Amino acid sequence: MILRPESLADRAAVFSLTQLAFRGHPHSDGSEPRIIDALRDAKALTISIVADLQGQIVGHAAFSPVKWCEQAGWFGLGPVSVHPDLQGRGIGQKLIETGLEQLRTIGASGCVVLGDPAYYSRFGFTQDERFTYPGPPPEYFTVLIWQEASSGLSSKVSYHQPSTDNAAYF
Ligand SMILES: CC(C)(COP(=O)(O)OP(=O)(O)OC[C@H]1O[C@@H](n2cnc3c(N)ncnc32)[C@H](O)[C@@H]1OP(=O)(O)O)[C@@H](O)C(=O)NCCC(=O)NCCS
């Protein structure tokens, strides 16, 4: 299996994989494949990595810019998907670590994620009251900071529109 940036030819495969991974997900409204397409069409899919197993796309991770306190350099992780038959083998972890490393390389200040802290804490995501996201339980919205923001600021984070607000979490 190799990890590589998505190519134009991967669009349909990423859509199908995301649909499959989120099918029946308790917090999903089924919008994740369209969110990825909307981000791509809006040129807001900053990083899109696929896990390619002998030509088949079995994993995918998306990273896109988010707005926070009118500061540049903040990104959001998600959606992330691994084929149901191949989950629990470290593919998700490799995709996320690779994407986070690329964000660091391009000088990102940090990355937020909406998801189970039991999973995302292993990458260094922690809850920070300065980063708020209305709706889900607050502990499900965490952030990984590389360049410390001005202290004391507290603001709502918003994803690229019309795209990932109301995205699923798990
Ligand atoms: C979440 C997901 C991307 C993880 O990818 P993966 O390749 O299965 O994960 P990894 O093999 O890297 O990591 C497995 C670990 O994640 C944990 N994990 C997987 N899914 C989890 C979930 N829904 N809740 C909490 N922990 C979860 C496993 O328990 C395992 O923990 P362990 O290392 O302590 O045993 C994948 O399970 C998936 O596609 N799920 C459906 C879509 C989804 O929920 N996406 C995330 C929301 S954007």
Distance between the termini: 26 Å
Total number of beta strands? 9
* H/E element sequence: EHHEEEHEHEEEE
Fraction in helix:
10-25%
Radius of gyration: 15 Å
Coarse morphology: globular
**Portion in strands:** 25-35%
The chain-level structural class is alpha+beta
Low-confidence runs (pLDDT<50, min 5 residues)? Answer: none
Q: Summarize the main sheet.
A: 7 strands, mixed
Could you walk me through the main structural features you see in this protein, from its secondary elements to its overall organization?
The radius of gyration is 15 Å and the shape is globular. A hairpin with a 6-residue loop joins β3 and β4. It contains 4 helices and 9 strands, in the order βααβββαβαββββ. It has 170 residues and is of the alpha+beta class. Strands 1, 2, 3, 4, 5, 7 and 9 form a 7-stranded mixed β-sheet that branches. α1 packs antiparallel against α2. The site of coenzyme A has 21 residues, from α1, β4, α3 and α4.
Summarize the structure.
This protein has about 170 residues and is an alpha+beta fold. The chain has helices at about 10-20, 30-40, 90-105, 115-120; strands at about 1-5, 45-55, 55-65, 75-80, 110-115, 130, 140-145, 155, 160.
Name some characteristics of this structure:
alpha+beta; 7-stranded mixed beta sheet; two-stranded parallel ribbon; 4 helices; 9 strands; binds coenzyme A
